[in-house]
Amino acid sequence: MLTYANAGGEIRFGYNLPADFGSSLIRPGAATVAPVSTRGPRLGAASHFGVTFFAGVDGRAVARNIFLDGNTFRDSASVDKNYLVADISAGVSVIFKKFKLTYTQVYRTEEFQGQDGGELFGSINLAYTF
């Protein structure tokens, strides 16, 4: 169980930018890569190719993280979590016909007290529009 509130933003530039919700990491409820306009490169534009470079930041206020807080109903192993966590990301998306391939590199700040620095990880997302 993970309970949090978050806010963030992303800037994008490139060729034939898609009218969509930008990039998203692999996480619950995050697959918002669907086009929102029929004029986009995946749905009938003159060119079915596009490339986008992006950078973003996302901040979270964490109320509950069962992996850090331990069992909800009885005592168990836990650590002192950081209530504010941020992700700083950058990446590239390539659109070809109805496919969108995205690579994102992310730096996540420390999630708990005593953690030896933040985490660096990548995310690959392949979307097909039908």
Structural notes for this entry:
This protein has one helix at 66-69, and strands spanning 2-15, 49-65, 84-96, 99-108, 119-128. With 130 residues, it is mostly beta strands. It has a single domain, classed as Lipocalin (Beta Barrel), CATH 2.40.128. A 5-stranded antiparallel beta sheet has the order 1-2-3-4-5. A hairpin with a 2-residue loop joins strand 3 (84-96) and strand 4. The longest helix is centred in the middle third of the chain and has 4 residues, at 66-69. The mean pLDDT is 84.
Helix count, per DSSP?
1
What is the element string, with H for helices and E for strands? EEHEEE
Radius of gyration: 18 Å
- Biggest sheet strand order reads 1-2-3-4-5
Give the tally of structural domains: 1
Shape: elongated
Topology summary:
Layout: E1 2-15, E2 49-65, H1 66-69, E3 84-96, E4 99-108, E5 119-128
Antiparallel strand pairs: 1-2, 2-3, 3-4, 4-5
Labels describing this entry:
1 helix; elongated; 3% helix; mainly beta; five-stranded antiparallel β-sheet; Lipocalin
How do you describe this structure in short?
The chain has one helix spanning 66-69; strands at 2-15, 49-65, 84-96, 99-108, 119-128.
